[in-house]
Amino acid sequence: MPTYNEKDNVGRMIDILFKDVFPKIKNHQMALLIFDDTSPDETWKVVQEKMKKYKNLYLSLAKGKQGLGYGYKRAFRYAIDKLKADAVMEMDVDFQHDPNDVPRFVQAFDEGIDYVIGSRYVPGGSIPREWGIERKFLSVVGNLFYQVTLFMWNVHDFTTGFRLARVSILKKVSFDRVFIRSFAYKTLLLYEMMKQGAKVREIPLNFQLRKLGDSKMTTNTIIEQLKVIGIIWADRLGLNR
Ligand SMILES: Nc1nc2c(ncn2[C@@H]2O[C@H](COP(=O)(O)OP(=O)(O)OP(=O)(O)O)[C@@H](O)[C@H]2O)c(=O)[nH]1
Ligand SMILES: [Mg+2]
Fold first, then answer.
1. CA of 2, closest atom in ligand 1
2. Which of 12, 35, 129, 156 is buried deepest, with most CB atoms within 10 A?
3. DSSP label at 79?
4. Which CATH class, in words, describes the domain spanning 2-236?
5. Of 74, 120, 216, best ligand 1 pocket probe by most atoms within 8 Å of the beta carbon
6. Cα separation, 38 vs 19, whole angstroms
7. Are 164 and 115 in contact (CB under 8 A)?
8. What's the pLDDT tens digit per position in 172-193?
9. Residue 186: how many CB atoms within 10 A of its CB?
């Protein structure tokens, strides 16, 4: 779970996961890794305090804001190399992703799925009604744009941040190629997982409204999203070999 200035969310999220959610998952050992970029609001101190209470809670701290993609690169390495994880999940700390949905991802993993995607654009999924027209447009049209330009009709949500990946497939993916700085890495990771033969399933996700803390979304990621389309086509055409 990435955090940057999430002091008001992180403590409650940790408690809910360890007290309510993880105990319901009986056939797996669950761990939570928070990766923080030394948030100015000292989010990491809340995590350090909670670590005294929960033994499967870990913290990876970087100096200065790195961007989501680079943060996840570090976190995935940590989960695979140090925690010896069989699967890794991506999830936000601001309660836009309901922690009570975690068991549904694990269940799909148990059914043999390699890449489980929480999708806002399949029946039963949704984006917040309260979002302004611009944000709705960017999200809906952005995803349609990916579908059309990448010819990937069987995927409906390329940028969702709630996912689970099987490590045996993830290990075949080149992290240096996938993890660019911004959240646009999410589309690259999906493409690479599919290229490595991952069995993908989209499960409906009701994306909630952020209630506490500030958004870190910036509009300059549109350029990175366009770059991703170029990178994928270059790969398909064999141009970057
Ligand atoms: N470590 C780290 N975490 C980050 C960084 N940028 C964002 N995050 C975290 O990544 C998650 C997603 O960021 P958000 O700002 O919620 O992005 P979003 O959900 O698209 O936008 P909102 O709907 O406005 O919340 C949150 O848990 C953030 O705290 C970063 O540079 N480093
Ligand atoms: Mg958010």
1. 3
2. 35
3. I
4. alpha beta
5. 216
6. 26
7. yes
8. 999 999 999 888 999 999 999 9
9. 23
